[in-house]
Specification:
Number of strands: 7
Radius of gyration: 20 Å
Number of domains: 2
Strand content: 15-25%
CATH class of the largest domain: Alpha Beta
Largest sheet: 7 strands, mixed
CATH topology of the largest domain: Endonuclease, Chain A
CATH superfamily of the largest domain: Endonuclease Chain A
CATH architecture of the largest domain: 2-Layer Sandwich
Number of helices: 5
Distance between the termini: 52 Å
Helix content: 25-40%
Order of helices and strands: HEHEHEHEEEEH
Shape: globular
Length: 218
Amino acid sequence: MQSPTKERYLKLLRRQEELLREYREILASDEDDHGFLDLTLFPMGRERTIVIERTCALANEPEKYMEMLSLPGQRASGLREIRDFTSEAESLIIVDPYIFSGQTAQADEITRDFKKSIRAAGKYIKRVHFVYDQSPSNTTNAVKKSIKQMLKDESINVTESQSDVLHDRVWISDRKSAIVVGTSLNGIGGRLAFILPLPRADLSALLDYLDDQGLSRA
């Protein structure tokens, strides 16, 4: 027998699916004479509707949905989400002020996790560009040196840009898709954090900003 909390949660999921279906029906049929909708009339326009087609560890539940939450103590599953995202990426732009943070004594461990996350030993990845905050409080030299040496050993081209105005962590694959990661790589599994797909419109705006500021090279 399901708990009242789970029953309520599943009921909300079903209601969300019903609302999404209604939005899609409206978007498909209620076009004006110009062939497009005034999306300001709808709280979820085309660019804000995210459809996730793959299943996850919770696929056997009565309601299928994707686990996009990295929980404390579940570092492996959080890293797997990133690894799945980068599976066939040739070029990565990693926007993360704290990508090179962490304790000096853990530099090798952080580097191993990063290597697995981008599949550095695979056949696809060729370039990685970092956008990060180089201030001493946010960057550990030992971690930075270890990660960059690993990439060099794997014959992966490395470039970097520094900025202290970017806060959120975003991983961009081949300038075509992106995920927002709620914490830096070494923080996954430490605190609750989401790993979410970035809508295309937001990705386009972010790339425009990075290009305009001279922060993107990959």
